[in-house]
Structures are given as C-alpha cells and as structure tokens.
Amino acid sequence: MAEKPWEGRFTQETNELAEEFTSSISFDKRLYRYDIKGSMAYCEALAKAGIVSQGERDKILQALKEIEGEIEQGEFPLSARWEDIHMHIEQRLREKIGEVGGKLHTGRSRNDQISMDMRLYLKEETIGIHGLLKGLQASLVGQAAKYINAVMPGYTHLRKAQPILFSHYLMAYYEMFKRDRERVTEALRRIDVLPLGSGAMAGTPYAIDREYLGELLGFTTVSQNSIDAVSDRDFVVEFLSQCALMMMHLSRLCEELILWSAPEFGFLRLPQSFCTGSSIMPQKENPDVLELIRAKTGRVYGALVSLLTILRGLPLAYNRDLQEDKEPLFDAVDTVKASLTIMAKLLEGIEVNQDRMREAAAEGFTNATDLADYLVKRGIPFRKAHQIAGKVVKYAEEKGKKLEDLSLGELRSFSSAIGEDIFDYIRIEGSVDHRQSIGGTARQRVAEQIKRAQEELAC
Ligand code: ARG
After folding, report:
1. How far apart are CA 215 and CA 97, in angstroms?
2. Which helix (H) or strand (E) covers residue 164, if one does?
3. Which residue's alpha carbon is nearest to atom 12 within ligand 1?
4. Which of 149, 160, 173, 157 is closest to 346 using CA atoms?
5. Helices of type H across 29-165
6. For residue 24, how far is its CA from the centre of ligand 1 (angstroms)?
7. How much is the pLDDT for 79?
8. At 11, is the pLDDT very low, low, confident or very high (cuts 50, 70, 90)?
9. Among 3, 157, 200, 341, which one has the highest count of C-beta atoms within 10 angstroms of its own C-beta?
10. For residue range 365-386, what is the model confidence (pLDDT) as tens digits?
11. Ligand 1 centroid vs 322 CA: distance in angstroms?
12. Which own/partner contact pairs does 449-454 have at CB distance under 8 Å and 24+ positions apart?
C-alpha cells in the first residue's frame, strides 16, 4: 500500500478506529474545486520561483485538471486512509505523474491550504447568499406593490395596536434583509484574504510570490501574519453569526405567516403547493414549510455556538480542532440557502384577504390613538387627551360599539373639543394616512419606500 505523506517517522500503522475518527474526507470532499484551483495557482507560484520547471508545471496542471474531471464524474475513490481532500488529491497526483507530483507541496502545509479552501468556498457561497437575499427582497417588494392599499391591524404585544398597510409590514422585512445583505458584503472583505504561503505557521523559506498567488486566485488582500493566517476562523464565526441573524429574521416572518394564515386570523392564504396535509385529519392544510424554516433556525444557531466553542481557548496556531469547523458551516450554508430560496417562492404565492384584514383593522379600537391625537390638535395636552380617549373606549366597549359608531353627542359628552370632523379623522384609512412621518405607514410614504427599494434592487 502506498505510504501516507507523513508516515516517515512512524513505525506503527494507524489504528483503524483512529483513521476513521480523524478522517474528514466524507465532508471536506465538498471543497475539491477550491483545493484544485488553489493547487494550480500554487504550482504557478512554484514555477515562478524556479522550484518546478515549465515541463513539470505543465504535467502537474494537466494532472490536476484530470483529477478534477474524475471527481466530477464520480470516478474518484475515497478512503479514510487519505484523511482529507488535500491528501486524496495529492495521492492521486503522485499516482498519475509519480515523483514530480511530490513537488507540489513544497513549502505548503495543509494548514494554509485548508484555510484557503475555506475562504474560496465561502467567498462563493457569500455571493450566492447575497443573491438569494436579493431575490427574497424582490418577492417582498412585489407583494408590497401588489397589495399597496391593503389595511391590516398592526400589533404590539400581539395585541391590536394601530392600523397599518400590509405593504408597510412587508417592507419592514425588506429592511431586515437589506441589513443582512449589507452585513454579508461587509464580511466578504474579511473572507477575501489569501492565507496560502503561510506554510504550517511560520511562513515559507521558498521564493513564493504571495501577491502573485493572491492575484491568480482572485483574493483582494494577502494575510499579514502567518500564525494568524493558519489559526484564524473569525471569518467563519462572522459568517455564521450573519446566517443566524438571517434565520432569526426568517423565523419571525414564518411565525407571522403561520398565524395570519390560520382561520382565526384569516388574513391570507398560503399557496397550497407549499402546504402539506394530515394523514388523519382530512380538512388540514398545514404550514409545514414555514414551521421547518422556523425550526431550522436552531440548527444555524447551533453551528455558531459550535464554532465559538471550538475556538474558545484554542492555542495558536493550527490545531486539528479546526477541522470541526466544516460540518456546522456546510450545514448552515445549505440550510440558509434552502430557507431563503423557498421563502421567496412561497411569498410569491400568498393571497391576501383584504376585506378580512380591513375588518380586523377596524376592530379592537385601533383608532383610539387617533382620537387622542385629534384632541391634541384641538389644544389638549397629550396625557389628558389619552385619558379622555381611554374613557371613550371604555364607554364604547360597554355599549358594544366602535368609536366611529358613537354619536357626536355621545363623543362630546367626554370633551367639548370634539367636532363633526372627528368621524373623518378616526376612519381606519385616515388613521393610516395621518402617519406621514418618514418611514410611517401613510400610503404615500410606503409608496416611496417601495420605489426606493425597486431602485435598490435594480442595481
Ligand atoms: N483536514 C484538516 C482540516 O480540515 C486539514 C489540515 C490538517 N493539518 C494537519 N496538520 N493535520 O483542518
């Protein structure tokens, strides 16, 4: 059997259990494209340094390309014996071109190699997630534009608070995902750093042109401390914390869509194609997709906590502990991508029951603040106005009426400042339209928000 690259000083074969236990190939095979890309660039840097000849360079590059093809075709045998994706590729390289293949690892370590693979991988995934966030925002804006006039009750403490536009509510999520996009872009800067050329930890004695290597691989900057370069996983933590925030945002949206599509609310219908039935209760149409996104938030939080815990108290520089960063990261990436994708599609299919929403917005004295505001406009200090409005609410509640159903006489018995124009002022639509402050729920303001969002999404 071929020798392992590090076997020189060993007199004992690796225990089978230890081999299985330490192997990462089952999951880090996902990184093969980045590993090969990195190796090709490294080979160029070796050629530039005169460590491999042009002929050797060509041989190595050709073989690496073939290996990539073999992996893509599923013709590449995996074995715990070769631990990880780096050793698998190197082993195959030596099988293909013999001794020359052994030159590729000159001055390189798997420690700087894995960090580079992870960074190349995350750069790509981050850009992908940025795009998915944008897609989700587009769905939100699309529905906001479609239902621009739908009035619904806004909630605080999950009790009816004030009438708002449904479009205003959707645009709140637009803002949340906008921050997510900004954060992702910001983190990309710190992912986009080349660690290769740091060696095991101390740097390399060979004339590897790291700037050149960085350019070949499309990194914007080159790491400035080899010890930090091989031990740093801050970029993974940062990325995972952003994923955690995205999932938290999604889970809040899920929760509300679940509530509002429940017959008790009846504000909207979820697309049936995104619901599932019950094996026993024929009448059911369950929001399982939303429930699962909500629950998967926990997995992503778990990934973040895993990473923070792996890194806690870890001495510099590389430790094998760092191999444990991959599974949580990959799982979080898959979960976030799947969740963002399906949420965007599901949102496109929701149907809003505008009449039911409007009816609910008019229940529960949601215009009580407007009554107080009206009194303020008539010169009454807000605290006093609040008290008067509270008394009117109590009276109306006892009579089983809405505020707008009281007669002018009844209303004036609480304050002589109330005039005929009160009815117009406390209409549900009036309540919405009075809120003209920047970011407020007035139709004009929301229309501006939507327009701005459409412009943002267009670039
Ligand atoms: N599979 C390892 C990881 O994922 C690669 C680096 C291994 N380095 C080492 N010296 N054992 O972190």
Report:
1. 27
2. strand 159-165
3. 323
4. 173
5. 32-48, 54-72, 85-97, 110-146
6. 9
7. 86
8. confident
9. 200
10. 999 999 999 999 999 999 999 9
11. 7
12. 449/144, 449/168, 449/171, 449/174, 450/141, 450/144, 450/145, 450/148, 450/167, 450/171, 453/137, 453/141, 453/144, 453/171, 453/174, 454/141, 454/145
What residue's CA is closest to ligand 1, atom 4? 323
Phi-psi region of 263 (alpha: psi -120 to 50; beta: other; left: phi over 0): alpha
- For the segment 401-426, what is each residue's pLDDT rounded down to a tens digit? 999 999 999 999 999 999 999 999 99
Distance (angstroms) between ligand 1 centre and the Cα of 110 equals: 6
pTM score over 0.85? yes
* Among 320, 321, 326, 329, residue to substitute to test ligand 1 (most atoms within 8 Å of Cβ): 320
Ligand 1 centre from 81 Cα, in Å? 14
Query: Which residue stretches of 349-442 are H helix?
Result: 354-362, 368-377, 382-399, 408-412, 422-425, 428-434
| Ligand 1 lining (C-beta closer than 6 Å) | 24, 28, 84, 110-111, 114, 320, 322-323
Alpha carbon nearest to ligand 1 atom 2, residue:
323
Instruction: Give the pLDDT confidence score for residue 188 in this predicted structure.
Output: 96
- In the chain, what are the domains? 16-106 (1.10.275.10), 111-356 (1.20.200.10), 359-458 (1.10.40.30)
Of ligand 1's atoms, which has the minimum distance to the CA of residue 326? 4
Query: How many angstroms does the Cα of residue 234 sit away from the middle of ligand 1?
Result: 17
The catalytic site residues sit at 157, 278
The full DSSP string for 273-311 is GG-B--SS-TT--B-HHHHHHHHHHHHHHHHHHHHHHHH
